[in-house]
Amino acid sequence: MVLTFGEVLLRLTPPELQRIKQAHSFQIDFGGAEANTAVSLAQFGIPVKHITKLPNHEIGLSCKSELMKYGVDTSGIVMDESNHARMGLYFYEKGASQRPSQVIYDRADSSIAKAQETDFNWDVILNGVSWFHFTGITPAISDNLSNILLTALQKAKEKGITISCDLNYRAKLWSKEKAKEVMTSYMPYIDILFANTGSIYDVFSIGTAYYGKSDDVETAIAVAKQVKDTFETKVIAMTMRKTISASVNEWSALLYDGNCYIAKKYKMDIVDRIGGGDSFAAGYIYSAYKKYTMQQTVEFATAASCLKHSIQGDFNLVSVEEVMALVNGDGNGNIKR
Amino acid sequence: MVLTFGEVLLRLTPPELQRIKQAHSFQIDFGGAEANTAVSLAQFGIPVKHITKLPNHEIGLSCKSELMKYGVDTSGIVMDESNHARMGLYFYEKGASQRPSQVIYDRADSSIAKAQETDFNWDVILNGVSWFHFTGITPAISDNLSNILLTALQKAKEKGITISCDLNYRAKLWSKEKAKEVMTSYMPYIDILFANTGSIYDVFSIGTAYYGKSDDVETAIAVAKQVKDTFETKVIAMTMRKTISASVNEWSALLYDGNCYIAKKYKMDIVDRIGGGDSFAAGYIYSAYKKYTMQQTVEFATAASCLKHSIQGDFNLVSVEEVMALVNGDGNGNIKR
Amino acid sequence: MVLTFGEVLLRLTPPELQRIKQAHSFQIDFGGAEANTAVSLAQFGIPVKHITKLPNHEIGLSCKSELMKYGVDTSGIVMDESNHARMGLYFYEKGASQRPSQVIYDRADSSIAKAQETDFNWDVILNGVSWFHFTGITPAISDNLSNILLTALQKAKEKGITISCDLNYRAKLWSKEKAKEVMTSYMPYIDILFANTGSIYDVFSIGTAYYGKSDDVETAIAVAKQVKDTFETKVIAMTMRKTISASVNEWSALLYDGNCYIAKKYKMDIVDRIGGGDSFAAGYIYSAYKKYTMQQTVEFATAASCLKHSIQGDFNLVSVEEVMALVNGDGNGNIKR
Amino acid sequence: MVLTFGEVLLRLTPPELQRIKQAHSFQIDFGGAEANTAVSLAQFGIPVKHITKLPNHEIGLSCKSELMKYGVDTSGIVMDESNHARMGLYFYEKGASQRPSQVIYDRADSSIAKAQETDFNWDVILNGVSWFHFTGITPAISDNLSNILLTALQKAKEKGITISCDLNYRAKLWSKEKAKEVMTSYMPYIDILFANTGSIYDVFSIGTAYYGKSDDVETAIAVAKQVKDTFETKVIAMTMRKTISASVNEWSALLYDGNCYIAKKYKMDIVDRIGGGDSFAAGYIYSAYKKYTMQQTVEFATAASCLKHSIQGDFNLVSVEEVMALVNGDGNGNIKR
Amino acid sequence: MVLTFGEVLLRLTPPELQRIKQAHSFQIDFGGAEANTAVSLAQFGIPVKHITKLPNHEIGLSCKSELMKYGVDTSGIVMDESNHARMGLYFYEKGASQRPSQVIYDRADSSIAKAQETDFNWDVILNGVSWFHFTGITPAISDNLSNILLTALQKAKEKGITISCDLNYRAKLWSKEKAKEVMTSYMPYIDILFANTGSIYDVFSIGTAYYGKSDDVETAIAVAKQVKDTFETKVIAMTMRKTISASVNEWSALLYDGNCYIAKKYKMDIVDRIGGGDSFAAGYIYSAYKKYTMQQTVEFATAASCLKHSIQGDFNLVSVEEVMALVNGDGNGNIKR
Amino acid sequence: MVLTFGEVLLRLTPPELQRIKQAHSFQIDFGGAEANTAVSLAQFGIPVKHITKLPNHEIGLSCKSELMKYGVDTSGIVMDESNHARMGLYFYEKGASQRPSQVIYDRADSSIAKAQETDFNWDVILNGVSWFHFTGITPAISDNLSNILLTALQKAKEKGITISCDLNYRAKLWSKEKAKEVMTSYMPYIDILFANTGSIYDVFSIGTAYYGKSDDVETAIAVAKQVKDTFETKVIAMTMRKTISASVNEWSALLYDGNCYIAKKYKMDIVDRIGGGDSFAAGYIYSAYKKYTMQQTVEFATAASCLKHSIQGDFNLVSVEEVMALVNGDGNGNIKR
Predict the structure, then answer these.
(1) Contact state of F98 with E335 under an 8 Å Cβ cutoff
(2) What does the mean pLDDT of chain A come to?
(3) What is the DSSP letter of A336?
(4) F69 and B71 in contact by Cβ < 8 A?
(5) More confident residue, D333 or B2
(6) Residue B231, domain member (yes or no)
(7) Cβ separation of C12 and F15 shorter than 8 Å?
(8) How far is it, in rounded angstroms, from Cα D315 to Cα C221?
(9) Taking CB atoms and an 8 Å cutoff, what residues of chain F touch C61?
(10) Across-strand partners of A25?
(11) CA distances for D93 relative to C276, E111, E168, angstroms
């Protein structure tokens, strides 16, 4: 069983391509980097449970129900009975063409941000778990969480659980200095690091000269190599996005484990790009469970996350068969009938 | 010009009569007790400005725009430039028949809750103001606000401005003890007190025996008399609601200034009951500006607030002519064509 | 075949119970007094064609399509090829409880208002027609139409066609004096007059003392008798509505042909009251085709129009079977399964 | 753990109060008599699994997801891999006022209707089960199901599992003669029978004279007594509905176990009456688990099912606390804030 | 008059680009290969009637109404009064970018599939008909239909009616062997065959080597030539689609009557590609009625069907003028004002 | 303060990409060439008031409210109290791919078209105004307006106010001859002329040979030069649009003041192209207030109007910061978080 740990947010999005100022209703989604990975894994048929803390009111319960709907084990979610418990939320304005997407976060003082060490009994939680996945957002949310996470990583390591982390730097949550310090302390526990040239530069000050070349393969390889050399991480997985506009992106990825494995590149009409990286992680973890080769893994994970961009919301609601159809190139977009 | 002062919240409501758990979108409204009164006064043609503090991001600006749309002067609203500024919000689940409406508040640490004395220059703000209206919610939000409000009341009193207050006790915001202490300290400044038997009992422990008889005229008169005797308030305005179900209510009101003036009673099919009391206050203030008799005032304010219950959202979007049609009984519901 | 003649309007309605000021979209309906009757007859299986003039652009064509959808013969509709041709439209704000419904008409200079005598070849149009139905709205729209209608009535009379008229006074379209003059000139052609005490008083100044008692049976009978005595009309059909609120009405009707036939009274939760009278006329005409007795006729027409009030839009989309179920009292509202 | 067994249908409903002919979209719900009971029990915190057979395509999987969302154990649902597998569906047109609701079923040849004995290993399924609930719809769907059900009942009886059945006669699925024969053969297994005077008359020809008096207490008691005398069933639970109109119903219930326990009667503004009886069964089963007295049971089950009528869709999404608030009469419909 | 014969389905589509699993409502459309052609012809002003069999309930009647709305003569549609009559339906999930569209059919045992020879009196139906159009879907639905169609073809041939067929192979309905046998038996009756390289290979095993080159002109010509040589069909019309992604396609066509006529190629942003081929057939038939040259015909039909891809639903709601504007190249996409 | 003068229309748009014939609701927007410029300026923080005449009913008031919402000073708008007052409206069908957008205007006899000289006291209106902006639509609406505008221009010139005009020829409103005569008479008053090669050719018969080359820079420069030479206008601002399809356009602009300043060219996925030119004018005026260089001006105005094409409705709801991000090229479409 895979275990994911992290915040889940209520996402509020104006319908179609309206700006927030024009909106008279918001579409409701739930999402969070680690929960997104969990949902994608559940669609692939991998048992997965998500650990977080949610307010015990209708919004918190709706969030839990949504995870249950998509097959994630929510039995370990801690419900916050306190009086003014809240969950974090964000407003997402989808961009178009030259107008970029925008996000307004309102996530302070959420139940998970204020969670205590005593909320989580890691010996119980980690029972039966063979993979632990988290992202750099979790420790950024609060010092509490940062400490809780360290405890979890230590326990997981002791139990021989594979650990993966998506670097995911968020400037609105912590400084580069703080991020560097904390993430560096986590690196010894991490077997697989998901990242891109931007986040690696932001967190580890690695790759200065290359910053901004977000889709340049040579740059990505060089950075991955330097990270591996620095931290002796088993695998560095780098996604490469070229933002042609808010409506069109190019997307690829590579894995570096000493050797380098590069995926096919996709040009995508964007439906919703939130959760792209999270679905890549899910594709990787699924491939690892299936003992795919590294090249198969990078193709599967890239195709899976390519498909995510065509799906509304945070969650990558695609099956293994659908990913495989794209990988194998018979996903020619024709209607099946 | 009338001045209103208090929090404005983002309201999120499932469409039609869905429960929150079923909802996939929320309707967007903005509202707050004092702002609701301001909007209603603007519809009546009374110049009115609303004072609050809002985050300087798209949600805060949308709120300001919505007040501007309905003609409220927003030039005095303080925009919060701080990094994690937020505005309060609440989720509103509309009830039906035997299923009561529900509210989940998420209003802690909002820009207005964290406002400072220095945010408001009352000498400037009160320039040209002849009426100051607030509710018991404002001081309940934070000690900051409670102190700021006291300053404002003192300044307003000095300038001979008429002051009205809607008692509006909110158990989730403060204790009865705290409410009693603070509201008692405000009473000397208040010329007109809007309340009902429930809020008076909660805040002032007046009328014990009558508690719960929310629509009993004799009870309301007795309580109003006791409040007037205690605080020497000029006018006590009591609304009287009988909740037959979430779909049907009865509604009336009375004024007590030594004499008692009782309005016609209305039986209402409820579209949205939020803001009922706030629209009553607006009806009263309008009537005062028009120098209506006390009986005309109670009829106008009751009819105005009766109409509010037929309108979606917090705001009472009715004109003087529409209220008058109901008061005069030619509002027979026939289509005008 | 029944022939109906008159304006069709584009109706724009805010969704649910929103006020126009709150609306961000309008629901689209098409309707008009005579066209509404035509659609209802088509649902009852009676061949019916509607004659009007519509602009030959997408809105006019959409209107024609909507009539075709519901089985009305539109082959006689004249399409206006002129440059700035328009169709009339109106904004309809649905009321609730004490808040009345409102209508804003924008119908001047429409294709039908500017129609010419030469647009309609009545000898061709009336071929195969056995019943001609119109309302008092048609002559009120323009002098052109008033004259065209007179020509049609003369032709129809010559051919022995039964003629019915719904009095339908519209104060925004013409004065009482003008209405009285024109409608009086039409009365010799009319076999069945649909009306109520209000419209009869407005147009013919008959029944002064009774004005306003819109649901009083004795009043209605007295007025019907006086109309019959004055104009020697074969049948006077009087609908009787009591507007308890915008949400609840009572509804009944009577026929007077010398004898008086009174229908069962219904108390209705209103979904949409536009087209109530028009559907009564359709119920009457259907009954006449089926050679129902006068008592059967008044029951059928009243039940049919009662059901209209439960249906969104102008059109009474009910079958004969559904009306009969209500007439026969086994329409107990239980789900059939 | 409670086990429910039966068909789940895709329900397609026009938005608001539109007729099917007017609709341009359908709201999607899933429901079925036994699944509705399961969902309600899950909201009450009772472990419950639902057994059915669903097509292994996106619609079948959506149905399964919806049950998972609301906490029902779906691990026992059999997925139909066959080529043209389908699930039953129905179109539901919500009535209003005098216009009754309508249902069009399209449920033939569904995966569950064509299920085979070998699809269900009852020894495994019934493991850990203490209550088995089904309705008269299940055997009516197909002879296959009727036989499968008999096997299940026999197995359940052997294991000492409590068995309840809601009689639920559906004329469109089988004849009264067939129903009588099959249901009579089941009666020895049934501990608690949920029914009303209509279904008892339809299935068992008991209570002829009383037929139609759907809300008469004396009638219901007499019928219940006769059923108990005939079949020696432990408890007969009778719901009593008076359909004032499609918009307003009265609702009550009684239990008969030799003694008679009658619940408070509720007058309800109807939001959605589908699933009313199913939620009553859930209320009863919950009460039995909580060892409520018979009077407490009938009050809880009646209040629970009263609340169902205020909720869109088939499922009774209410908590124990909400039911209790109504039972205890402090559910006065006031907003909690 | 053109006659089209075939199934009409209820189509249920999630809004916007949602996956079925995410959807809470379905948009309603009606469509079917032959009916789509009929609607397009009606928009072009060609008299056309569609023959099918529909259940006589609200869904069947809604389907009929929709065809009436768009001007198709529905007087020959047979209404199925049987108890469990149903119409076929399908769920359509619109793809985007790399995610292909998906279709789930639920069309077994529909009224048309179970239709009998006696349902259709072809002598009456074919009266006044000069063109008969059908597709390979009709005989695939059931053996009944396959036989009924053969009768119709024989009758039509006798009367000298032009016959066209769109090959339209559907693997979910019948095997390639069955298709080959039946379609081969029809070929002698067919004057114009609409097809593409894929369907010709699937049905006639012609063009093996070329299979998959769906947009290669040389391939298409070679295949067309071989079909013409084999069956001596007057005209082979080949559409050529290149599926760049679910969002972008290229589209062209050619006619082969011994000579070859090739249309301009269009690159299309896809709104809805269902009905693309059906609208090509309508464009061809219209051109034939207008006696266009073969080159004019292929340009008109290709432009018409290009426009279809920009329109939601199955129906090509464009006028002759709109097609001509595209053909003539002044359809530069500028707003006309 | 900037003053804009001209008609505001109610715009009715089918949702998503539906054709009018398919629509069952219209989205509501308000817009008009000059009002669009006003709203954009208000978003940029420039004080601006819009002058027009609107009917004093709910639709007119809604229009006024919408302008207030976006910060435009509406205190000078004249409300039309007359009986059949109406505002102009138009139906807008958004195109896609090869299907062009369509507009149906219904703007005759609006309150503004029938406005009188006495409605506007220009001495009062122009008080505090430093810039006057109008378009060629205003004089085209009616002779009244054409004369009123001339008065305004004379007054503005006297007061030394900068005057800008967008040529905006509308063939449906007046002939080229009339346009030439009137616009030529206005040219002496105009300091900055916004136009494109098409409108200049239509109105002034300048640039014949170049007509149609709407995005050719050399052509645009030559035309601009000729206009400047002819009328001695200070600045000619030419937008250049290439309509690749209804879904994709290219967009650029140049300024000519003797020298020529050319902006970066943008390729845009179109969300809504109405108001593109109006937002360019706003960008120019803002730049002038900020004393930008000519090159900065053309870049700012082009980027601003490029962003407009990504926003639903007529109004360019973007901030200065957002425009600057695009100008400075760090608007790379990445989500900010």
Answers:
(1) no
(2) 95
(3) B
(4) no
(5) B2
(6) yes
(7) no
(8) 51
(9) 21
(10) B27
(11) 21, 22, 35
The string of pLDDT tens digits covering residues B48-57 is 999 999 999 9
The amino acid sitting at F167 is L
CA distance B300 to chain C (A): 14
- For every residue of B290-320, DSSP letters joined together read TT--HHHHHHHHHHHHHHHTTSSSSS----H
Structure confidence by residue, pLDDT tens digits, E192-237: 999 999 999 999 999 875 556 678 899 999 999 999 999 999 999 9
Put simply, the answer to whether D58 touches E172 (Cβ < 8 Å) is: no
CB atoms inside a 10 Å sphere around CB C180 = 16
- Structure confidence at residue F216 (pLDDT): 87
Q: How high is the pLDDT of residue A207?
A: 87
Number of domains in chain A: 1
**Burial (Cβ within 10 Å: 0-12, 13-18, ≥19) of residue D81:** exposed
Backbone angles phi, psi at F34, to 5 degrees: -75, -40
Residue D61 at interface with chain A, using a CB cutoff of 8 Å: no
Q: In DSSP terms, which residues pair with B266 in a beta bridge?
A: B251
Residue A209 lies in a domain: yes
Option in E21, E27, E91 nearest D24 (CB): E27
pLDDT (tens digit, 9 = 90+) per residue, F51-71? Answer: 999 999 999 999 999 999 999
Tell if the CB–CB gap between E310 and F17 is shorter than 8 Å. yes
**Separation between Cα atoms, residue E309 and residue E275, nearest integer Å:** 8
Q: Which residues of B are less than 8 Å from F68 in CB distance?
A: 68-69, 71
Nearest to D91 by CA among C175, B225, E12, C333: E12
Q: Considering only CA atoms, which of A123, A106, A148, A193 is closest in space to residue A5?
A: A148
The vertex-C311 CA angle with C309 and C312, nearest 5°, equals 115
User: How far is it, in rounded angstroms, from Cα B150 to Cα B187?
Assistant: 11
Chain C: closest CA distance from residue F11 (Å): 10
- CA of A270, closest CA in chain E: separation in Å? 8
- In whole angstroms, give the CA distance from residue E146 to residue E182: 8
CATH assignment at residue A6: 3.40.1190.20
Whole-angstrom Cα distance, residue C52 to residue E325? 31
Q: What are the tens digits of pLDDT across the range A207-254? A: 875 556 678 899 999 999 999 999 999 999 999 999 999 999 999 999
Q: For residues E243 and E95, what is the distance between their CA atoms, to the nearest angstrom?
A: 12
pLDDT number for residue E333: 53
Cβ within 8 Å of residue D316, ≥6 positions away: D36, D39, D40, D43, D275, D278, D279, D282, D304, D305, D307, D308
Its domain, for residue F50, covers 2-327
Distances (CA, A) of D161 to D145, D156, D186, D192: 20, 5, 15, 12
Which tens digit of pLDDT belongs to each residue from A244-290?
Answer: 999 999 999 999 999 999 999 999 999 999 999 999 999 999 999 99
Q: Is E321 on the interface with F (CB under 8 A)?
A: no
Confidence label for D194 from pLDDT (cuts 50, 70 and 90): very high
> Per-residue pLDDT tens for E262-300?
999 999 999 999 999 999 999 999 999 999 999 999 999
Q: What is the pLDDT of residue E210?
A: 55
SS3 A156: helix
Comparing alpha-carbon positions, the chain D residue that sits nearest to A64 is D69
Tell me what pLDDT residue C216 has: 87
Report the alpha-carbon distance of residue E93 to residue E103 in Å, rounded. 6
Residue B153 belongs to some domain of the structure:
yes
Residue D211 pLDDT class (50, 70, 90 cuts):
low
Direct distance between the N- and C-terminal alpha carbons of chain A, in angstroms, rounded to an integer: 36
Give domain status of residue E335, yes or no: no
pLDDT score at F211? 54
Cα separation of B77 and B7, whole Å?
11
Q: Count Cα neighbours of C149 within 13 Å in the Cβ-side half-sphere.
A: 32
- The answer to whether A336 faces chain B, any CB pair under 8 Å, is no
Predicted local distance difference test score (pLDDT) of residue E336? 59
